[in-house]
Automatic annotation (TrEMBL):
Entry annotated with the keyword Membrane: yes
Domain GspD-like N0: 46-115
Pfam families (alphabetical): Secretin, Secretin_N, TPR_12, type_II_gspD_N0
Cellular localisation: Cell outer membrane
Per-repeat ranges for TPR: 656-689, 690-723
Gene this protein is translated from: gspD
Stated name of the protein: Type II secretion system secretin GspD
Keywords assigned by UniProt, alphabetized: Cell outer membrane, Membrane, Protein transport, Signal, TPR repeat, Transmembrane, Transmembrane beta strand, Transport
UniProt domain Type II/III secretion system secretin-like: residue ranges: 453-615
Domain of life: Bacteria
Signal peptide: 1-28
Family: Belongs to the bacterial secretin family. GSP D subfamily.
């Protein structure tokens, strides 16, 4: 195969002229090159940063006066950092090292030097060294070394050295003459010659092994083992050189020459020494968070004073910003958040770590969820829509109510919205309803019942019924609306030019923002923001007119209570036209056969919000079952199903059975905490659920709660017989749950 070469070789005078004229061949890469002369020996400072290797070869050619023939395969970038001056001779050695690093070699051939890939260099006219030429001062040129072995077997030495050389190197053994032929960079051959001199000794029953190391450096282990065996041999009167250990740093391996009987002991000792160095106790720890966010947790720990955990004075500040807590807890502990695994990486003493770990356990707890159900509706002021808050005494009798209007007195059965607009509350009105929403003389069990009761009422306009599930103390936002075009500019011209109109689109929507915060007493704090934007009905196309009603408030209510916001009055103008067909369209006279009317109508905006705390997955599953059952009723029953929603929804035992089955599956998976939650939720729905009672008793028995388990087993035995079992004593006695309960009591006795 024909190879292509470039020839570099410029006169020094020409190169100096280029430098003086500012047209150096190095200008393309702008390397920083300075030359200084000190007597007969010249010194240079070379500083190349990401320069093409061919430019670097040109520079060395001018510096040393050597002619180079460069193979077309020689490509790459060169970076050399040389803070001190070096001689021209050493500069050429640096040049050979650079070529080796990039996989090339310099091969002398008469008056020129060929720069070729290392793989090609071994077949070129390279220098050949013999035993008399062996030296420890190796450079980075490719040479062939011929080694005559005196004692060792050439093939064995070859097999030993093969793992220690690069893939481009060559090792050939000649068994007849006991010689080795090595082709490699001279610097590596010098290292190999050290090994050959060590192992080429009289055998005396010794064996040679290579032991690779994985964790510890070869130099440190060879020194330790060498000192150990030298001392042992001296005590036993043996010659010290009986065990030879040579570290080979390039592959991090040991070359061991020792009597065969010592090799098992040496291998065992190397295995014990080649282990990970144990870190200082308590130095590095990882905590995987189950519920909290790692970055947020680090921010909390960062803001802690130092003495809060360690009892030491806190340093001046924390290092690392919001992600690393370095010194906020103490000067000796650092915390880093790993967002990929949601974990905390902590370094510090054991006692500091234990304090942080205890705090993290208290903060990394399951966060409760809040299911928010809302209803936004408009009611005409002419609608008899009585709603209010009533106070009841201990016997359940209504004793009074309050409209939420400042200065209003308590009274029975607050009517709120009546046919008389003058009796409307002035401005914003806020009230809280207990479980059950009373409007007029009807009490609705939930917001869904209100929607179904008034969905066909022309005086009531249900704007939105958003429902959303959010985490405690996290904002939930719902926005429903449309994008309406507004005319921003209009150009009307005469002649042949075309008219055009520019539009801008704006949202006309109803948005609800709620941030719930739950305390341990199941009291919910709601930060509520409502904005209702509505188009006026008399708006022209392209020039819509809107009116906006907003409310921002914070309320504190109990779980499953309903907060009512009202008193936001809006006025809508409606224009109508009546005319006799055809006659009403006659100009001027048409007014005798048509009429126009304009009516203004006031509406009151009501906002109902009901929060429900969801403690665990079991309660979430129960909520899902109830909502699904409600949807099935809506789709299954024809016509108006409002009557069904006027009654509280009866508890469905099927929900209890489903939750019990989920709890049993969790118990099989050893997730006892969630299993208990599902069983307790199932028993809230149906206290006589035998499966839930038996499974919960078994769970208590597994956790060592014998008294609680026995009580539940007895409760199962006291359950009435199932349907059809009263007349068949034998069938009743074979109830599997009662049999399991009886067996459980026998175990506990």
């Amino acid at each position: 195969m024909m190879r292509t070469f470039l020839i570099y070789g410029f006169s020094a005078a020409l190169f100096a002229s280029c430098l003086l004229c500012g047209i150096s061949p190095l200008c393309a890469a702008s390397p920083k090159v300075t030359q200084q002369t000190g007597g007969a020996q010249r010194y240079v400072t070379i500083d190349f940063n990401d320069v093409d290797i061919n430019i670097f070869i040109k520079y060395i050619s001018e510096l040393t006066g050597k002619n180079f023939v460069v193979d077309r395969e020689v490509k790459g970038k060169v970076t050399i950092i040389s803070p001190t001056r070096i001689s021209e001779e050493n500069a050429y050695r640096v040049f050979e090292s650079v070529l080796e690093v990039h996989g090339f070699a310099a091969v002398p051939s008469g008056s020129i030097i060929k720069i070729v890939p290392s793989v090609v260099a071994r077949s070129k006219n390279i220098a050949t060294l013999h035993d008399s030429d062996m030296t420890l001062d190796g450079d980075d040129r490719v040479v062939t070394q011929i080694v005559s072995l005196k004692h060792a077997n050439a093939e064995e030495i070859k097999n030993m050295l093969i793992p220690l050389v690069s893939k481009t190197s060559v090792i050939i053994s000649h068994a007849g003459s006991g010689m080795l032929i090595l082709t490699d960079f001279q610097s590596n051959i010098s290292r190999l010659m050290e090994i050959i001199r060590t192992v080429d000794v009289p055998a005396d029953g010794d064996e040679m092994f290579i032991i690779p190391l994985h964790r510890t450096s070869a130099e440190s282990i060879s020194r330790a083992i060498g000192q150990l065996f030298t001392g042992v041999q001296a005590q036993k009167g043996q010659r010290p050189e009986a065990v030879k250990i040579i570290p080979f740093e390039r592959t991090n391996a040991l070359i061991v020459v020792a009597p065969k009987e010592l090799m098992p002991r040496i291998r065992a000792l190397v295995t014990k020494l080649d282990e990970d160095v144990p870190r200082k106790d308590g130095n590095l720890h990882v905590i995987y968070l189950q519920h909290a966010n790692a970055e947020e947790m680090v921010k909390v720990l960062t803001n802690l004073p130092g003495e809060a955990l360690s009892g030491k004075a806190a340093p001046g500040g924390a290092s690392g910003g919001g992600t690393v807590a370095g010194g906020a807890i103490s000067a000796e502990i650092k915390i880093v958040a790993d967002t990929e695994t949601n974990a905390l990486v902590i370094t510090g003493p054991r006692e500091e770590y234990e304090a942080v770990e205890n705090l993290v356990k208290k903060l990394d707890i399951p966060r409760r969820m809040v299911y928010l159900e809302a209803l936004i509706m408009e009611v005409k002021v002419t609608k008899d829509f009585a709603i209010g808050v009533q106070w009841a005494d201990g016997r359940g009798s209504v004793v009074g109510g309050f409209s939420g209007r400042p200065g209003s007195a308590a009274y029975d059965n607050l009517t709120g919205m009546t046919t008389d607009p003058g009796r409307l509350p002035a401005g914003f009105t806020l009230g809280v309803l207990d479980k059950g929403i009373r409007i007029g003389d009807v009490t609705f069990p939930n917001l869904g019942a209100v929607v179904n009761a008034y969905k066909s009422d022309d005086d009531v306009n249900v704007i939105a019924t958003p429902q959303i599930l959010t985490t405690d103390n996290k904002k939930a936002t719902i926005k429903v609306g449309e994008n309406v075009p507004y005319i921003t500019s209009k150009n009307t011209t005469s002649g042949t030019q075309q008219d055009y109109t520019n539009y801008e689109y704006k949202d006309v929507a109803t948005s609800l923002t709620i941030t719930p915060q739950v305390n341990q007493a199941e009291i919910v704090r709601l930060e509520i923001g409502v904005e209702v934007i509505k188009l006026k009905t008399d708006s022209a196309v392209g020039t819509p007119t809107t009116f906006t009603r907003t409310a921002d408030t914070t309320v504190i209510i109990h779980n499953e209570q309903t907060v009512v916001i009202g008193g936001m009055i809006g006025e809508d103008t409606t224009q109508g036209e009546y005319k006799v067909p055809l006659l009403g369209d006659i100009p001027v006279l048409g007014w005798m056969f048509k009429s126009k009317s304009t009516s203004n109508e006031k509406t009151n905006l009501y906002i109902f919000i009901t929060p429900r705390i969801v403690e665990n997955p079991a309660e979430l599953a129960e909520l899902f079952h109830k909502k699904r059952e409600t949807m099935e009723k809506v789709h299954r029953v024809p016509g108006d199903a409002a009557d069904q929603f006027l009654r509280p929804v009866a508890t469905n035992p099927a929900h209890s059975v489903a939750l019990s089955d989920i709890g049993f599956a969790k118990m099989q998976q050893k997730d006892l905490l969630r299993a208990r939650q599902y069983f307790n939720q199932a028993l809230k729905i149906d206290p006589d659920n035998a499966a839930a009672l038996v499974n919960l008793a078994t769970l208590n028995e597994m956790e060592g709660k014998r008294d609680e388990a026995a009580s539940l087993y007895r409760q199962v035995l006291e359950l009435p017989p199932s349907e059809g079992g009263a007349d068949n004593h034998e069938a009743a006695s074979e109830d599997p749950y009662k049999a399991l309960a009886r067996a459980g009591l026998n175990r506990l006795q």
